[in-house]
Amino acid sequence: MHPGERILLIEDDRDIAAVVSSNLRDEGYRVEHAADGRSGLDRALRDPPDLVILDLGLPLLDGMDVCRSLRQRDPATPLLMLTARGAEADRVRGLDSGADEYVVKPFGIRELVARVKALLRRVRTDRENRPATEAAPARIVRGGLVVDPGRRMASLAGRVIDLTAKEFDLLALFAASPGRAWTRSELLERLWPGEYEGGGHTVNSHINRLRAKIEADPAHPRFIETVWGVGYRFAERRESGT
Predict the structure, then answer these.
(1) Burial of 94 (0-12, 13-18, 19+ CB in 10 A)
(2) Whether the bond into 106 is cis, omega within 30 of 0
(3) What's the rounded Cα separation, in Å, for the pair 42 and 27?
(4) What is the CA radius of gyration of the chain?
């Protein structure tokens, strides 16, 4: 953990907010609190934090709407969603809206802190764990799609693609090993270590969101292909048109 990282907690339950804030501060994080969706979104856009923790059931502006609006303006800031809605459809809907992680209420505070640490660690690993003398990872170019791991940016036909932190991690993993078939279990292990129940749907949801952003026809993907009975793979150079 890097001391002083700033977390914005958007939560209307003051008791929950107090417990979460206290425990995160004990870990060395700086925590800001917004008690409604509208002020939380304004804060996140005005001065982007290192991570947003977002409740779904918020006054003034629902958490799902906050998530969508934030993702439209700021696709990179990691976002962990808190929800009392435990149904699988609601969890998938939250991920489809742009959340990188979710935790279902009631939750253990130790689990929440662990997920915050893991999410922040994944976002900064490439940048901060690379030796200063090591060259930045080379850009990957496939059929008009450019993935730049060093800058954590991707573009298609010269247009920058708005990706969440987890979507970029998934795309970079695929693009770095074209032709390799990844099982859902392998993807979970790499990108969602210690994943909770329903992790397979987490993978599927992120794949669908990623395809919607990079494929001309997501129903007939050119880049991220389904390997039936196995999982997914990134098309090899000759298959993607380059």
Answers:
(1) buried
(2) yes
(3) 26
(4) 18
Q: Tell me which residue of 64, 120, 51, 94 sits closest to 202, measured CA to CA.
A: 94
How far apart, in Å, are the Cα atoms of 116 and each of 26, 59, 100, 154, 221? 13, 24, 11, 25, 33
CA distances to 29, 51, 73 from 12, in Å:
20, 18, 23
Q: What is the pLDDT of residues 13-37, one digit of tens each?
A: 999 999 999 999 999 999 999 999 9
Segment holding 138, helix H or strand E: none
Using the predicted structure, report yes or no on whether residue 240 has a pLDDT greater than 50.
Answer: no
Domain chopping of the chain, boundaries: 6-128, 140-240
Per residue in 81-118, pLDDT tens?
Answer: 887 766 666 666 666 677 788 888 888 899 899 989 88
Phi-psi region for residue 155, left (φ > 0), alpha (ψ -120 to 50) or beta?
beta
Top CATH class of 140-240 equals mainly alpha
Instruction: Indicate if 140-240 has the same CATH topology as 6-128.
Output: no
User: Where does 11-108 have alpha helices with state H?
Assistant: 14-26, 37-46, 63-73, 88-96
Read off the pTM.
0.59
Tens of pLDDT, residues 190-233: 887 765 555 567 888 889 989 999 998 988 999 999 999 889 99
Reference 93, options 194, 10, 208, 6; nearest CA is: 208
The Cα–Cα gap between 210 and 199 comes to 17
pLDDT at 57 > cutoff 50: yes
Two structure tokens written together for 155: 């573009």
Specify the CATH superfamily of domain 6-128. Response regulator (3.40.50.2300)
